[in-house]
Amino acid sequence: MARPPRAGDGPVSPARPPVPTRHTAAARHPGRGVAHRCPAAGLAEVCARAGHDVRVVGSGPEGLARGRARLERSLAAAVRKERITGADRDAALPCVTFTADLGDLRDRQLPLEATPEHEPTKLRVFAALDEIVEGPGAILASNTSALSIMRLAGATGRPGQVLGLHFCNPAPVLPLVR
Predict the structure, then answer these.
(1) What is the pLDDT of residue 159?
(2) I want to staple 56 with a disulfide (CB 3.0 to 4.6 A). Which of 22, 25, 60, 105 is the partner?
């Protein structure tokens, strides 16, 4: 017996509603991608601590300020717990740029979507990233652990360049990715 249709099944309509820019991010080669909502804030931190150029897209000035504050708190806690040094924290902070414009991901090579587990939202984000990200070799990734990567890939014109890259939570503490 076939399952009933769900939101997001089938092709994405060309007349899509606007893509929420909140909780999406990316990094330029050899960078990684991230977002600023828990657990995604940890993705930005992990990539920045590795020295990658990270760009985080948020939902406006307040959301961006909260994301930056969350990153600073987490790095401060890592120093306090002696997981990293003060120099490591100071090197990581300038690696992360916050923006409210999804178009700022244009030059990214590995945008990593980390929106809430809501398939229609993720489909809209992937369709938008497909149009925005310019690099022909760019890989579009999702941090989802619950949704079909194949279905997300179907929202793009490059399904062979979409993958799941799930970081275990909290990413800065658990060095696991699947």
Answers:
(1) 96
(2) 25
pTM above 0.85, yes or no: no
Whether the upstream peptide bond of residue 30 has omega within 30° of 0, thus cis, is: yes
Contact 92, 172 (CB under 8 A): no
- Written as six digits, the tokens of 150 are 């194949």
d(CA 162, CA 127): 11
State the Cα–Cα distance between residues 23 and 20, nearest whole angstrom: 8
SS3 of residue 132 by DSSP? helix
Catalytic residue chosen out of the listed positions 23, 29, 36, 166: 166
User: What pLDDT was estimated at residue 167?
Assistant: 64
Residue 118 designated active-site: no
Per the prediction, the chain carries an average pLDDT of 77
